[in-house]
Amino acid sequence: MPRFSVSDLPRRAVTRSAKLATLPLGYAGRAALGLGKRIGGKPAEIVAQEIQQRTAEQIFKVLGELKGGAMKVGQALSIFEAALPQEIVGPYRATLTKLQESAPPLPVATVHKVLTEQLGDDWRDYFESFDDRPTAAASIGQVHRAVWHDGRDVAVKIQYPGAGKALLGDFAQLSRLGKLFGVLMPGLDIKAVLAELRERIAEELDYLREAEAQHAFALGFMDDPDFHVPDVVAANEMVLVTEWMDGTPLSQVIADGTKEQCDHAGLLFVRFLFCSPARVGMLHADPHPGNFRILDNGKLGVLDFGAVNRLPDGYPRSFGQLTRIFNQGDMDSVVAGLRAEGFIRPEIEVDGDALRSFLSPYVEPTAVEEFTFSREWFQAQAASVTDFRPTNVVRQLNLPVSYVLIHRVHAAGVGVLCQLGTTARFRDEVIRWVPGFADDPDDEALPVS
User: Fold this and answer.
1) 3-class secondary-structure state, position 347
2) Fewer CB near the last or first residue (10 Å), C or N of the chain?
């Protein structure tokens, strides 16, 4: 197919910029309010907590009202959601869900215009048939079902005109959020995180790059007993045609699957995320239920490779090593290792016991032979990070750039597993696929020895 770039200005760009620009002004106003209260004799810690809460409310309110890059940032930075009370992020999540579910499809005339500009006036010659009604619509593009000229059922993913400019324009505005997030998470280098996310989003806009990733996954899992990835049929920068894949959406398994089905789906879900870096050199970085299907033969089908984390050497070895050391109880080495990896910045001091309490739930599934994820377990863990006091250890931690997408995947993955309520031998998957976890404790490569 020919390559051709659609040039279209994002709609209401001025309104979007104005909405984002209100954030720093809101922060300044709250800081001034806090100073006045402090002068009035109110305890500084209480004032700081109030400023943090109001800042969080403003951040998530604005992000929730926007699409494009702002919505992507809101989804990706799950660390902030986990660190905030339900009364703040609950409405925010509801807004995001509504935005995702109600994404208006392109008018048929616009779909045909994009296909003409991208594939040429004879674009219909590529297809035996093309369904003008989209089967899915999201913030960047929408998917149509069609029959390729050789008789294969295919999915045709079409990028919205102007999506790229809207996304990247949002990130230019979001660079102003550094001070705001610093109020919530003083240990986090938010500018580096935003820069990494911007680079990944730019990749997500390039359907040729997505096609390359999906083809690599399709080859890596060809004839696999557990997984199926539809291969790429054709692509250019804004249109991606892949094999069609039927199956039961993971969201439906979550809603009404049996315990056996949920256990099976959850185990395959974890196995796919852990084995992909070793087998393909990439990690699927958008693991929400809409991107997975359970096929009639029991395999896990995987869709949407726009967001991937390229890990040519597999998972970072230190990830497995530090998890193993934590399970062995050596917190001094864990703290030293987290510093070496950039999770604790040089000027930040953390309490080892508080860090152990915070990390325990995330490491717990790797410390036992079999583990059950549940919503109740997840809610109990979330309660440990909803304290706004500056001494709360979660606000003292940094998210290194190299771990931004790994964290995103793990945080979202745990959420999916808790929705499924899966019981399985997750430790076996970590032992098999994560370097450093099962190695001898005297391993010379240990970064904290």
Assistant:
1) coil
2) C
